[in-house]
């Protein structure tokens, strides 16, 4: 493909993305509700500009879904593109080198919350449509659906998908919301982990107590919570919840060998995040620990006195947010029940424990022998000059399993992010190279896919 148009328009593409990134579309915090609407409307206007038809904001019980389509010929296949315009909260703001919603380009990278996850990657699709429009050819039918609640579990999108099966009829789903190994090491994620997320509350005495008058004679909810959490892993870092591993798919030695063939260095891994050593479940490599094994992590823990100086107190309550990443063939329903039951059962008699489940999501593995996967791999090979390798990613995109179960459709995870892009962290960024490579690669995917489906 001639990349002249891309080069000539790169600055405008970036300016448009930056204008969108300036809108703080944080879905977790209701105080940003107005900005969510603004971000959705901004995208809708860009959809219209690139010539999509039937562009609309589809209302849900929560944030609107931005939808558009280009239906060129009923005899051609249809690709449904999915992504999200909501972003994670930017806290803690003081750890950003430049404000999260005042995007800057530094060292060929766009710094802003959402730059990579997922506004930057969604915007590649919008500009890829512009490129194809300008070339005068849409090789297949395209529907695009960008939601505003991925970072909070996609519950309303789930309802929307179930209620709109005809509207969303397609042959395959295309998503750019994952990463690749390195800019000179293209790869395609073929697995996503599921999720089971909980908030737990441990209650001891009916009020905060003087830790001298009562200390030693009552169960301290924070001590108890720490002990309970510590007991969830054994000395080999296996998770101790009875039945937790029952349905975990066991890979053959050959499959594990294949998986470990991806370029990975524990030394570089440690260096990249400032760790003195790697850590995890005994008997598995880092690649396996992230890709094919389930995990349990505390995401936050609080209670008692955390202010200046010292206060001698036994708190009445202690809290934690605990999540588990799931792999095939675990289900969030099964694991949620097992966790709840186990966590309540290990509480000592001196406290009461409540477990409140949050959102869940199911694990998926996408095929590597499909027409769509090959179209994506060929597209990347063309634009990167190197055949991408399949990898198993550690993150979650809850709707992908539902695309399979509700619409019967496989997904291709054509992502261009890097682990070092700091998604969900301060100083999230996205390479200009990655953004432009995405815009260049996506039209190849459509052409390859349409040609192979003939
Ligand atoms: N885009 C990410 C998921 C992701 C990132 C997958 C990189 C693979 C590689 C997505 O926006 C995300 O953050 N998902 C959440 C799940 C959600 C229910 C909060 C996650 O994985 O924590
Ligand atoms: Mn995302
Ligand atoms: Mn995310």
Automatic annotation (TrEMBL):
| Pfam families assigned | M20_dimer, Peptidase_M20
The answer to whether UniProt assigns keyword Metal-binding to this entry is yes
Q: Which organism is it from?
A: Hymenobacter actinosclerus
- GO MF annotation terms: metal ion binding; peptidase activity
Q: What is this protein called?
A: Acetylornithine deacetylase/Succinyl-diaminopimelate desuccinylase
Kindly state which keywords UniProt assigns to this record, in alphabetical order: Hydrolase, Metal-binding, Protease
The GO annotation for biological process reads:
proteolysis
Annotated Peptidase M20 dimerisation domain residues: 199-349
Q: Which CDD domains match?
A: M20_dipept_like
Which sequence ranges are marked TM in the entry? Answer: none
């Amino acid at each position: 493909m001639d990349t002249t148009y891309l080069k000539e328009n790169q600055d405008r593409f970036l300016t448009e993305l930056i204008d969108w990134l300036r809108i703080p579309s944080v879905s977790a915090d209701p105080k940003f509700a107005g900005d969510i609407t603004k971000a959705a409307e901004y995208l809708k206007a860009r959809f219209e500009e690139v010539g999509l038809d039937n562009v609309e904001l589809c209302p849900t019980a929560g944030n609107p879904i931005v939808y558009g389509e280009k239906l060129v010929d009923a005899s051609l296949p249809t690709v449904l593109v999915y992504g999200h315009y909501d972003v994670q909260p930017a806290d803690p703001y003081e750890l950003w080198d430049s404000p999260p919603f005042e995007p800057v380009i530094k060292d060929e990278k766009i710094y802003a919350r959402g730059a990579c996850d997922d506004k930057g990657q969604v915007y590649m699709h919008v500009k890829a449509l512009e490129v194809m429009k300008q070339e005068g050819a849409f090789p297949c039918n395209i529907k695009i659906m960008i939601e505003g609640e991925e970072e909070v579990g996609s519950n309303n999108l789930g309802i929307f998908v179930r209620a709109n099966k005809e509207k969303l009829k397609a042959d395959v789903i295309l998503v750019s919301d994952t990463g690749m190994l390195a800019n000179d090491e293209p790869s395609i994620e073929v697995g996503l982990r599921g999720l089971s997320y909980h908030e737990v509350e441990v209650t001891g005495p009916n009020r905060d107590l003087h830790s001298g008058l009562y200390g030693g004679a009552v169960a301290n909810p924070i001590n108890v919570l720490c002990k309970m959490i510590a007991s969830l892993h054994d000395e080999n870092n296996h998770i101790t919840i009875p039945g937790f591993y029952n349905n975990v798919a066991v890979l053959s030695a050959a499959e594990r060998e294949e998986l470990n063939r991806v370029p990975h260095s524990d030394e570089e891994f440690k260096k990249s995040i400032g760790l003195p050593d790697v850590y995890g479940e005994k008997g598995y490599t880092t690649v396996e620990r992230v890709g094919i094994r389930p995990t349990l992590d505390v995401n936050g823990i609080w209670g008692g006195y955390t202010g200046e100086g010292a206060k001698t107190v036994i708190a009445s309550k202690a809290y934690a947010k605990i999540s588990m990443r799931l792999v095939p063939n675990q289900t969030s329903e099964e694991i949620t029940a097992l966790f709840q039951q186990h966590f309540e059962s290990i509480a000592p008699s001196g406290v009461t424990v409540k477990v409140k489940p949050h959102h869940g999501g199911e694990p998926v593995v996408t095929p590597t022998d499909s027409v769509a996967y090959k179209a994506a791999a060929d597209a990347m090979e063309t634009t990167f000059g190197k055949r991408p390798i399949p990898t198993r990613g550690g993150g979650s995109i809850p709707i992908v399993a539902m695309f399979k179960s509700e619409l019967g459709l496989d997904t291709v995870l054509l992502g261009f992010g890097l682990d070092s892009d700091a998604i969900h962290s301060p100083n999230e960024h996205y390479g200009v190279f990655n953004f432009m490579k995405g815009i260049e690669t996506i039209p190849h995917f459509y052409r390859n896919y349409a040609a192979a489906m003939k």
